[in-house]
Amino acid sequence: MPLKFLRRRAMKDDIERVEYASMLYDFYGSLLNESQNEVMALYHEDNLSLSEIAEELGQTRQAVHYTLRKAEKALKSYEDKLKLLASYKESRELASKAYSIIDSADMEEPYADKLKKIIDKLSE
Description:
Elements lengths: L2 H26 L5 H12 L4 H8 L3 H22 L1 H21 L4 H14 L2
Helix pairs in contact: 1-2, 1-4, 2-4, 3-4, 5-6
C-alpha cells in the first residue's frame, strides 16, 4: 500500500476519533473530574492543541495528553454502559426515515409540518 494512502487513512481515523470523543463529551462531560473536564473543553470546544493546553495549564504536553486519553477512555466506558450516544444516533436515523416517508407521501403541508415538528421533539 502506498504511504500516501496510509497517511490519509490514519488522518481520517484521527478525525473520526476526535469527532466521536467530542460527541461523547457532549453527553457525558459533566461526569468527568475537574481536570479532565477542563482539558476536554480546551481541546474539543476551544480547539487548542496539546501544547497550547499545556502552556495554559502550566503542565507538560505529555501530562495533558495523558489526561485527555484518560478522559476519553472514561467517556467511552460511560457510553459502553449507558448507550446514550447510540440511542441518540438511532433516534436521528429514524427521524430521517420518517421525514423521507412524509415527503414521499404527498401529504398536505400543514399535516406534514406538524408531523415533522413532533418527530423533532421525539428525537431531541
